[in-house]
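**User:** My hope is that you can spare some time for a protein that puzzles me. As I understand it, each token names a local backbone shape. I would be glad if you read both lines and explained how they fit together. The protein I mean follows directly.
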Amino acid sequence: MTPIPQSRDILLVGAPVDSGKARRGCLMGPDAYRTAGLAEALGRLGLTVRDLGNVTPAEAAPAPDMPPHVYAPAETAGWTAALAEAGARAVAQGLPIFLGGDHSLSLGSIAGVAHHAAAQGRPQFILWLDAHSDIHTPQSTGSGNLHGTPIGYVTGRAGFHGFPPVPHPVPEANICMIGLRSVDEAERAALAETAIRRHDMREIDERGIARPLAEFLADVERANGMLHVSLDVDFLDPSFAPAVGTTVPGGATMREAHLVMEMVCDSGLLTSLDLVELNPFLDDRGRTAQVMVDLAASALGRRVFDRPTRAYS
């Protein structure tokens, strides 16, 4: 398999979104990635890196039809509009990395890159690396936290009153979730009605992580798709990455996470990347920020030895 050449122009898009849940701290995430040396790490790989600074949210008014228990919906709608615009603009210029910020930023980042994919006549695919499926709508979420809704939004589910419309929903069959281990009853019922590929940690234990990922990447390549990877800190086991407010034991090991990123790199398919849910307030001397920087570097070419991953070669 011949990898498709990736853009060498990497665009860092700061998304200090902290409205997707009540626990504060993710707004510090973009600067933590910068301090941990993300631009420098990618520059050492021969990549051209441009930091576009931080996006600011658009003005948005509260929607009367939004359920009252939903936390900060107008603020999140404003972030969604701004990030969709920034994402569409950035992916037209290079490979954007969205520096989060909580996972509600993906409502905007994915909507933006999907809009660009549609303009190019190419299908949008999503690799969702997360302990949670995040397929809630504002009506189904018990917590009211909108960081649990991005997949619901970008696939076109109803109920996002006051949010920008999604002109190009991502087809369910184009989404692959890996690392699931905290899925509530409403999400389980919703997923059962979809074509979303989902691989929980039991399956990863039994089958390994490379095989389902290789199958998905092969489908992306056959479709000439654009691949957005959304990497949540809680994809990893909290023993490796403690700086997240939604820790769930039993996550991916460091070696599994690096294998995923190396396979993504080998495929040559990556067109955009989210780094989300880093809460530096909960970190241990920058440990989690550095882990996420290292994983991003693996997705963009860092290797111990220069060889392709056998599972995707």
Remarks:
- The chain has one domain: 9-312.
